[in-house]
Amino acid sequence: MTGMSGQVLQETLTDQRHSDDRVMSTDGPVGCLIFEVKSIQSFIFSSGRLRDAIGGSELIDRLTNHEAKDNLLDAVLAATQASGIEFSRRAGGAFYAFCRDHGVLDRFAALWLLAVQQAVPSLGFVLGRGEGDSFSNAFSKAQKDLRSHNSRERTHYPIPVPIAERARRTGRVAVQRDSKDGAIDVVTQRNKPFADLSQAGFIHRYSPPEAHLKWEDWPRSLETEDVDGFPFVRGMRDVAMIHADGNGMGQVLIKINETVKQHSERFLEIYTTFSQAVERSTCHGAQQAALEVLLPIRQKGELLAARPILLGGDDVIVLVRADLALAYIQVFARAFEEESRRQLQKLTNLEVKGLPDKLTLGFGVAFIGASQPFSMAATLAESLMSHAKTRAKQSEVQDIAPSSVVFYRVTTALMEDYSTLVKKVLTHYEGEADDGDTNSLSRRRAYIHTLGTYVLSADKNVGSLPRLSDLEALTALLQGENMARGPVRGLLNLLQLDPAQARTSWRRWRQLLHDKQPQKLSEFDRYLQVLMPRYQPDADLPYALCDDGHSHQEFCSPLGDALELLALDHRALATIQQQEVMV
């Protein structure tokens, strides 16, 4: 409880001991307390600096995680001398606490609220309380109470006076003048001490044990001239903001809830096992991605080409060098699924029935320049991830949504919402809307230069969504010798200027390829048909009706996605070409 006033602590403990005199029964109903952090991203990226984001991540990790050094939850438990409190989850800035002694739980809750607001100022959080005749009933009531308080806004201190100096990066009231950054706000002030990575804890969960990595092996800056900067190559200073979140967690929790209703005495054991299963699967995915993607390309004396930001439960945020990002998430997803299959077996052994065979992940990958704002990129990555999860859930696979990704390379103004981005940047329209004709919009064609969501699994039984491996194979083909991709890029631009000329250009390109490289044209058409089953080689443009079923006038194509991978100098292409990936 660093920084907690001794007087406040003593007064709080005294008040709660009075309440203990009134309620000391250990045979009464079960009390449950749920705590969850809100708006983690906005807190972490508030200043826009990588070092502050690192400090904020470490600070949040030290709130509840039992593996974190000097975590706040253990400190509060020790200070209140709380005995009899049990936890079914304590990770990712959240915990589920249970206790039959209501006085103990009251005292703990009161001090916890004070400690969190003192230790992590301006962090949003929500607290729910409930009690019942069983762990399951108490938990259900606490969840209901949590939802009722979810929109509650807490006052953040210090409250600025009308005339107050502001931190130039965040706009919040300044509380200190830093020798390097000038006026800084209370959040930045609190994060800075935890940016000392020699004391970092959560970053080790990204590190494979056999690699013996230390905190010095990870970059702390995006400036190439810094000794702890990202190891960029060939002058390209692009990074990928990756946000991952689990699919199917709700399904598993439903099955768990059905079991604990019948075996209430096993509530803590089952929920603890599930929480550990998710955490272990995520850590295994992160460690395997470092082992297979980051370490093999590391040059002697270089740092790793990634910077972990957050790992809590199934929620992951990590910065990876742009050319490695898609290879990174594919290994991450595969390893996560493999480990989750093993971990879910433990729940099956506890008589939890109806579980999926494995858990999967949805990824959002925002490719940005190293100098672009982190906070907006993080919001965009979250929007991409949400879209990937939604589309994967709508696929034809019945057991569980497949691991999937939506990616976008920022080349214009940075937008934070993927749906808006598709409409304004990735779509060209043919035909002008007539305000006087209510039917004109139905005749207006939209050409969308992306397929949106791609499945990460190489398994063909992934429903109707296209596979990322097929997109990579198409990209490798376009990168090959004598395969002019310039006209393909020009085709996308022509659609905006002159659709008729775009059709002429497309036919000319195909004819030239047919005359000089017929086999290449055949491969090209085959990849397009795999990615877009409705595609016809004799179509006037390399587009097909979108599979989402929203409109008969919306046409999609993977060519825009393939060209973006080429622009990112996608390293996986060499491997794909060597393996001669064929459909």
Question: Which structural class best describes the helix and strand composition?
Answer: alpha+beta
The proportion of residues in beta strands is: 15-25%
Instruction: Tell the overall outline.
Output: globular
CATH topology name of the largest domain? Alpha-Beta Plaits
Termini distance?
59 Å
Low-confidence segments:
1-26, 571-583
Helix content: 40-55%
Number of strands: 16
The biggest beta sheet, please? 6 strands, mixed
CATH-level-2 architecture of the largest domain: 2-Layer Sandwich
Please list the strands of the largest sheet in the order they lie side by side.
Answer: 8-9-7-10-11-14
Tell me the domain tally.
Answer: 3
CATH superfamily assignment of the largest domain? Answer: Reverse transcriptase/Diguanylate cyclase domain
Instruction: Estimate the mean pLDDT confidence.
Output: 82
Assigned CATH class of the largest domain: Alpha Beta
Radius of gyration: 27 Å
**DSSP helix count?**
19
